[in-house]
Amino acid sequence: METKPIYVLYGSETGTAEELSERLYRNLIRLGYRVVTLPMDEFDTQKLIEPLLCVFVCSTTGQGEMPLNMRKFWKFLLKKRLPMNLLDDMQYAVFGCGDTSYVRYNWASKKLDSRLRQLGAQSFCPRGEGDEQHPQGVEGGFAFWCTHLSSALATVKTPSQPALRDSENIPPSYSIIRSGNTHELTEQPQHTRGAIPSTLQENNRITADKHWQDVRKVGLSLPSSVSWKPGDIAVLYPWNDDESVHSFLRCLKWDSFADDLVFITSNIPERKNPWLPNPLTVFNFVKYVISIHSVPNRTFFEYAAHFTNDDLHKERLLEFASLEGLDDYYDYVTRPRRTLLETLQEFHSVHIPFEYALDALPVIRGRQYSIANRCNQSEGKLELLIALVKYQTILKEPRQGICSRWLAHLHQGIHFNIEILPGFLSLPYTLDRPLIGVGPGTGVAPLRCLIQERVNLEIKNNVLFFGCRKESMDYLLREDWEYHKNAGNLQLYCAFSRDQEKKVYVQHKIQEYEEMIYHTLREEGGMVCVCGSSGSMPNAVRDAIAGIISKFAGESISEGYEFLKKLEKERRFFQETW
């Protein structure tokens, strides 16, 4: 009789929870357990009536929302008709990936833990919480939690086979077969990743040439059948430049078979194949699938140590992969943002076999951007505001974001597919009640979509607090805001933080117009939408509004924060930060 597996189920929005689940999967396999890892929405809920041992890893998105790939599973758990003893035969553990700069820190994992208990499941290990603001990020909290998980697991489950020795590697998850040489192949790869075909119409810098940051207004032409709402998200799928791909192939000694056709199938029945370009050659596989400019995770170092014949390299690689070496890993990889390609160039003895490519190497993930214009299907144009990421670390070469590197060189007329995902905007924005938008920098993008939609509905009581460094350098979409202001559609208040000796931010402007804020929220039933960086801005805005409410109501500051909680419950306060 086949041993029942441990299910490692994840809900992941940007890939962090998925990556941690894959690492846990490998660790448990090495200990001799039978393990299956899946997104929660791919788990067969009919199995919930069976005895189960599950480990859940999930992130929180939006205002305490569940990630997209676990919403179906979560919706099932919330059904009122489910018996309260449904999960009596489940033993489980939960780890949450979160960020303490968000108000609802780790909300999704807490709600999941609570609901599993309500349905009778029994936790065999205390819930773990990872924090992006921790010096070692979510990674540090997860590594610490895994030590407790391993001990707790040993009390409830016996491995089905002997543990692997340190020198042994687990079998590859995918069967990757190369077939022949195809130098005559002329067919271009089909960009089928994403369901919506698009054509690049506009890719223009909208910050001053002398400004430190390059912000692009990106316009895409879409089929007229495509629609979206304020708050929805566009997903772009970048690819690697040819020069970097050739360097990567040489590092791993894959260049000799770069033109071979490749056929990939999963070795794990429950696991689907990843997205792959077509035709699939080794070159196309690296160009469109492998994230060669991303920061390598500890999983890469774990595999790399198995595929080097240099003892000094092996020792160092194992350090980076170990829990004890987290600080070294942070100093070598995370802090300087050293890329996978740069790491392979330094550890030149590492030659990962091609069949382990999808296990050992990170894959390119879609990049999510808030849509910046209202849907007009007769025009069929979608607009985004994208700040290109480029900065200096202790390394000689400037660091670039993966999507930024790609987007910087895209030319007008190029075709590629995208996705549009539903957003989490819960404000009743179509009602004729005042709206206060707060959006510094590119945080103003979803607010532009929202305000355009309201103006189209002839709702003119809109307020915008916009912030940037200098009016002459990075006043994004100035023409739009001044047009709406002059047309009577918008009250506009700008905070140009570096245009005077004392810095002025959006929270200061909010305090400057405190009477209007109080009247709008307390007397007129207004709404607040805060969008932008997840640093100190969101909390500073909340503090400013809470202070205004308490001052004018003659109440304590705690009552001001209670009022904000009331607004959230009434769907009158929304925060979208990243």
From TrEMBL:
FAD binds at residues 337, 367-370, 401-404, 578. NADP(+) binds at residues 442, 497-498, 503-507. The keyword Ribonucleoprotein does not apply. Its cofactor is FAD; FMN. One of its GO terms (molecular function) is flavin adenine dinucleotide binding. Residues 193-428 form the FAD-binding FR-type domain. It is an enzyme of class 1 (oxidoreductase). Residues 6-150 form the Flavodoxin-like domain. GO terms for cellular component: cytosol; mitochondrion. FMN binds at residues 12-17, 59-62, 97-106, 132. One of its GO terms (biological process) is iron-sulfur cluster assembly. It catalyses: 2 oxidized [2Fe-2S]-[protein] + NADPH = 2 reduced [2Fe-2S]-[protein] + NADP(+) + H(+). It is found in: Cytoplasm; Mitochondrion. Interacts with DRE2; as part of the cytosolic iron-sulfur (Fe-S) protein assembly (CIA) machinery. In the C-terminal section; belongs to the flavoprotein pyridine nucleotide cytochrome reductase family. In the N-terminal section; belongs to the flavodoxin family. NADPH-dependent reductase which is a central component of the cytosolic iron-sulfur (Fe-S) protein assembly (CIA) machinery. Transfers electrons from NADPH via its FAD and FMN prosthetic groups to the [2Fe-2S] cluster of DRE2, another key component of the CIA machinery. In turn, this reduced cluster provides electrons for assembly of cytosolic iron-sulfur cluster proteins. Positively controls H(2)O(2)-induced cell death. This is NADPH-dependent diflavin oxidoreductase 1. The gene is TAH18.
